[in-house]
Amino acid sequence: MSEATQNGPVAAGSGRASAGNERSRAGVPLIEARAVTRILAEVVPTTLVRDVDLTIGANEFVAITGPSGSGKSSLLYLLGLLDVPTAGEVRIRGKATSAMDEDERASTRLATIGFVFQFHFLLPEFSARDNVMLPMRALGTMSLQRMQERADALLGALGLAEHAGKRPDQLSGGQRQRVAVARALANEPPLILADEPTGSLDSKSSEQVFEILRDLVARHGKTVVAVTHDLGIAARIGRRIQLADGAIVADEGN
Amino acid sequence: MNLVLDIALTHVRARTRQTLVAVAGVMTGVGFSIMMAALMEGSQADFMRQLIDALPHITVSDERREVPSQPAEAAYAAVQMHGLTPETRRRGIKNPMATLASLERWVPGAVAPSVQTKAILRYAGRDVAASVTGIDPHREPKVSALARQMRQGSLPALYRATNAMILGDRLAEKIGARVGANITVQTSDGARLNAQVVGLFHAGVRQVDESTAYVLIKTAQVLAQQTGLVNEIRGRVSDPMAARAVAQRIERETGYKAVSWQEAHEDLLSAFVIRNVIMYTVVGAILLVASFGTYNIISTITHEKTRDIAILKSLGLHETTVRRIFVIEALLIGTAGALAGWVLGYALTAALGTIEFKVSGITDMTRLPLIYAPAHYAVAAAVALASSLVAGFFPARKAARLFPVDIIRGAT
């Protein structure tokens, strides 16, 4: 396990026990997909995801693998409420999302889901600390001082304490991705969705980020769903869902 | 700081040059609109003040607004009769003192009788036609600014000599007369008398200053060759804007034509309305052009920031919050422009106020008449903010409607 994760990124600066929260919800899957299909309505309609049934519980580490164009990211966006299925239903903690309006979906994302994308997607004019504080400020349940303390604690836990005041362009690729992880954890969501989180990193940084994600599951009770085309990394993840042509062809380790 | 405001400030700060250009656009619009409003309304107010101060608010003459029907027309109920000579009418207002007393009872202000006649003033071989007005020196100060306009002598001086006369300073200059000069006054009816100049006045209106003379009422009656003649009652009301209504009531009650200052200068007042429409159109156009600058920068920012918008929306920011960010950016530009525009507007107005005009036309104004009205500043800023709001709203709405997945998919 990396030095960064020794401090425990989720518990950093937090008074809440996320894992405990998830245990209290035992019995209800964290996320479910029922016959989910997504067709992109263009000149020639393209089926991105085809009739997917999937249940992911609390404290699981799931890898979604498959060749390019197999619908991995599209499925992740559907599970993360960034996209709307053409047919079928996505449930978060048992709650159907198809009837939600855009604002409800946004609120659910803010409180329940943390995203880590292949490219860090940090706001370039904001410091690492300010980027981590963004979801907390959007949620608006903490004082500014408390948010700063939590952001600094998260960055410290991920080995970025001395970089908190730097802007993204002053950080390396691996550091930026760790800032993105810290941002995903800011509101203590039970679910982390990662889209190729190591895709743009060198092997050392990839390993660091992978360890952080694994630590989130192992030590902090989070559920992590990571899209990856790296079979080496996928092999080290407990449950592997393989997609081909938008449909699940294998679900190993379930 | 509020998240929305923080992001908005960061965006506009990051584009210093573009932001400054947009702010300068709004500033110019606001500044010049304030200056134009100060100048246009200043000149209008100055002109109105001269009209209201220098002239009576209401003039009741011995004329009727409509030609009275002939007895024969009434007797035969005829629409029109040819060959009738109109009834010879005695000049002047009938029972002037009773009419005056009746008006004094209800007119809010003061009324004074006068006699209007025309005469030739002759002095040192020079003849000049003038309007000779017979006045009551005690009542006159209540209905006109003549007492304040005296440059030499005073109104009561009219009592000090037989046939005393006060001349407009330009009129005196024309005939070469000074205070103390004895001049000959002659009317077209052949009346003639010698008068002594006891004072000079300066109304500031060339037409008045070079063709008006004041005498006592009885002197004017001698010139008009009609004892007891009063052919004009002039009134001054406490609220000049109510003059039209008061004039209408006087006309109803006396039957004589009563002309308010508004009616007498209707054409000028309509010209002011047209002038104001033109002014506000020009000012509106300036501010509209300025708002294009704001629209341009907000559109540019939203275009450049599509990825950031996708990030914010994927994190869970609502559409309204995203829209608010860009609307606030437009309002920040509008507010900065309006504040800078206030300073520019004040400076431009102050600079205009220092310019001296030596030319003497209708009036002797030497500086531009300007008005410093808070309303001008408030209206200019409100229009600037409203146009900034509209300019920012459409790109903001477009930004808020971005579908984050489309951007994220495109980036990966």
Detailed description of the structure:
The complex is a heterodimer of chains A (254) and B (412). Chain A is α/β, with parallel strands linked by helices. Chain A is 36% helix and 24% strand. In chain A, helix 5 (128-139) crosses helix 6 (144-157), helix 5 runs parallel beside helix 7 (173-185) and helix 7 packs parallel to helix 8 (203-220). Chain A is globular and about 45 Å long. In chain A, 52% of the residues are buried. Chain B is an alpha+beta fold. Chain B is elongated, with a radius of gyration of 33 Å. In chain B, helix 2 (16-54) packs antiparallel against helix 12 (266-304) and helix 2 packs antiparallel against helix 15. Chain B has 16 helices and 10 strands. Classes of the chains: A alpha/beta (254), B alpha+beta (412). Chain A binds chain B through residues 73, 77, 80, 82-83, 102-103, 106-111, 115, 117-119, 121-126, 134-135, 137-140, 183, 195-196, and chain B through 3, 6-7, 10-11, 14, 307-308, 310-321, 404-405, 408-409, 411-412.
Helix coverage percent of residues of chain B? 55-70%
- Helical region count of chain A? 9
Helicity range of the residues of chain A? 25-40%
Could you give the count of β-strands of chain A? Answer: 10
Percentage of β-strand residues of chain A: 15-25%
Distance between the termini of chain B: 33 Å
Would you list the SSEs of chain A in sequence order as H and E? Answer: HHEEEHEEHEHHHEHEHEE
What is the residue-mean pLDDT of chain A, rounded to a whole number?
84
Question: Main interface pair?
Answer: A-B, 32 and 26 residues
End-to-end C-alpha gap of chain A: 24 Å
Largest sheet of chain B: 6 strands, mixed, barrel
Low-confidence stretches of chain A: 1-7, 13-25
Structural class of chain B: alpha+beta
> What's the alpha carbon Rg of chain B, rounded to whole Å?
33 Å
Binned strand content of chain B: 15-25%
Going across the biggest sheet of chain B, name each strand in turn: 2-3-8-5-7-6
